[in-house]
Amino acid sequence: MSNGKFYKLPVEIAGRRDLTPASKILRAVLADRIGDNGFCWAGVRILARDTGLTVTGVLGCLRLLEKRGDLQIERRGIGRANHYRLTSQSVQQSCALKKPERSGKLKRGAQQTCAQALNRVELNQTDQLNQTHIKISCPKSPEALRLAELLLSEIRRRKPDYRKPDLKAWAKHIDLMIRRDKRNPERIREVIEWCQLDDFWQSNILSTEKLRKQFDKLEMDMEKRPGRQAVAPPQRGLDGLTARQRALKETTR
User: Fold this and answer.
1) Sorting pLDDT into bands at 50, 70 and 90, what band is 233?
2) Average pLDDT of the chain to the nearest whole number
3) pLDDT (mean) for 180-190
């Protein structure tokens, strides 16, 4: 089997509905074998091996390509291989350019099958999806993770054994609040600190997802009951963290 070998299929051929997928694969194999003289003479069994089709399937595809005008077949009689010539001049030119790149150590029959080509496409698509997922999952706002840690520290102030959540997932909801909902980070901090002092909201806001969902109600309640904010705000260092938050961060590393 050739390493890194693949067949080329022109876009105008790939999109045609009058050809079957198997006949398109056979056409690509024939185009790969055509030399500078414009034709090839591969046997039916060799074509079956290169395409992964049966001999009957190859014969059917040859008839279909000939019927659609994509292939000219010069039948040379029993015991002699037919000559095949593609009618698309652009395909023949692309094959002629590709010929010098072949290694002399490679056998003509050592070519990639359809199943392997499809598997490679699926792997490439999976890699692209994984890379997209990574880009979406990473919060873009630098304040998002800090505010997620603030909410966790306020919850653990009342319940020290509160299970540690996925802070990156928490930060993602804060990031959406800042970028998509246009919330001010300082306002988010004020609401977090207020709701965790409120007798009702402190047991209902236990995640950043719930914080985002109830943020408007929280703001309105905070305006109606300003007395809940009478507690002096904690002192923060140059890093924006309180002593309790700093200690929590050190223990969670």
Assistant:
1) low
2) 78
3) 92
* pLDDT above 80 for 133: no
Q: 138 falls in which pLDDT band (50, 70, 90)? A: low
Please name the residues in contact with 219: beta carbons below 8 A apart, sequence gap of 6 or more: 187, 191
Whether the predicted model's global pTM rises above the 0.90 cut: no
Give me the domains of the chain, ranges plus CATH numbers.
Answer: 11-134 (1.10.10.10), 142-251 (no CATH)
